[in-house]
Amino acid sequence: MSASPDLLAALTERLGAAHVLTAPEDVAPYLVETRGLHRGHALAVARPADAAEAAFVVARCAEARVPVVAQGGNTGLVSGGVPQGGLVLSLARLDRVRAVDPLDATITVEAGVTLADVQAAADRAGMLFPLSLASEGSCRIGGNLATNAGGTAVLAYGNARDLVLGLEVVLADGRVWNGLKALRKDNAGYDLKHLFVGSEGTLGIITAAVLKLFPKPLSRGVGFVGLADPAAALALFAHLRDRAGHDLTAFEVIPPFGLEIVLRHTPGATPPLAQAHGTYALVEFSSTRTDAPAAAALEAALAGAIEAGLVEDATLGASEAQNQALWALRENLSEVQRREGGSIKHDVSVPLSRLPKFLATATQACEAEMPGLRVCAFGHFGDGNIHFNLSQPVGMDRAAFLAQWSRFNRIVHDVVHALGGSIAAEHGIGLIKRDELTRYTDPVALDLMRRLKAALDPDGLLNPGKVVVPEGGGPPALPSS
Ligand SMILES: Cc1cc2nc3c(=O)[nH]c(=O)nc-3n(C[C@H](O)[C@H](O)[C@H](O)COP(=O)(O)OP(=O)(O)OC[C@H]3O[C@@H](n4cnc5c(N)ncnc54)[C@H](O)[C@@H]3O)c2cc1C
């Protein structure tokens, strides 16, 4: 697409030259996704200061028929923010916390506030904003909502979707929908905000949100547990959920290979348990009550599990520093996988009861396809969500391994589909899973998605080529960079 001088002149006049980037070196960081898997192209990057400027940019682009690709922190893992032409609309300068209301238990923030800053603003008001991801220092709340982000606190508090009460959205024609309500109950017509949550910039541009806050837990207990296998992990999960209910705030699994590479690549990390086990769980209880410390409740629940023969061994953090050290074994997993060479990722979910079957079937199928391949299946077990990642065989060429991405996707996604699961649990569809969505989605659902897209963005200008494409296919996927 050639640059439109009139469009760029209009944007520059309104936003200022410093906030309409056209020099290749200024635009470059906005063209590539976080792992460098794809590189796109764009005529410019616009950085509005507020919702009115964002609406101006979208309206001018609509007139000029120029596509608009929203970007928050650009930490997305499915190449959803990588532009395939058109204009990148960075929300980073919409970074104000508009209001915090402890009585309503709400916070109103602009789309460009980082997740860490939303958490910090809630904390200063003596409250909790529970969404928590390893990328929270750089991802932005508009991006979190646009991807319906998950993370480590979903078990107790839900996904981003469950945490939103109201939205302000710039529509494809540049009009602004003010849906910034702070209501816990509102059945007045269709619930429009949920159309935009998880729509990955394809239906509208989120400029602000009213979010739910929660009482801050007064204590937490963290345990690292050795188990025979995933079936034992499932039994332990049910045992802890029965005893703790809402106070069970995390249940993450780590496979033996995952623990091995975290210990290998994390300076100062020590094995948490004396012996090796078939699988491991990182469990957390939290409590808002002064008379019921979480660590004591976790200790009692784990003692019961040991007595029942569900657990082989367990250790509890004896201080907040030890709790953090145990959590680091889980949180560092994505990072250390990079040190083991190429990794083919799957972010999938199945009903909880089918997790052991999924893990066994998918592992066997992948190992049979490529001897020496190392399965690193970890993550949010309590949500039924596994990051089923495949590390390359030792010594294999990285690029040759990554060239097998689609082949392994098909194997793993077929297993997920057969078990009634989802091929996109928390990272979304973007570009990477666009064709997989078409393959695995019920035709009626796909038709409804396409109709929604056509109704809200009739000219196909919002993040074209991502998530759902018109029947017959969209533009070809970008080549890997
Ligand atoms: C180390 C690491 C750990 C991660 N852990 C998790 C995890 O545990 N759980 C999880 O869910 N994700 C995780 N992610 C993925 C990523 O951080 C999330 O998807 C996050 O929500 C993206 O936010 P962002 O601001 O970076 O969005 P971006 O990457 O900028 O954009 C993502 C998508 O949303 C669209 N978009 C962005 N802002 C807006 C807006 N204001 N309005 C409309 N559309 C918009 C973009 O067009 C794009 O399609 C992780 C990523 C990394 C790098």
From TrEMBL:
Pfam families: FAD-oxidase_C, FAD_binding_4. Residues 38-216 form the FAD-binding PCMH-type domain. The keyword Nucleotide-binding does not apply. Coiled coil: none annotated. Keywords: FAD, Flavoprotein. Belongs to the FAD-binding oxidoreductase/transferase type 4 family. PANTHER family: BLL6224 PROTEIN (PTHR43716:SF2), D-2-HYDROXYGLUTARATE DEHYDROGENASE, MITOCHONDRIAL (PTHR43716). This is FAD-binding oxidoreductase.
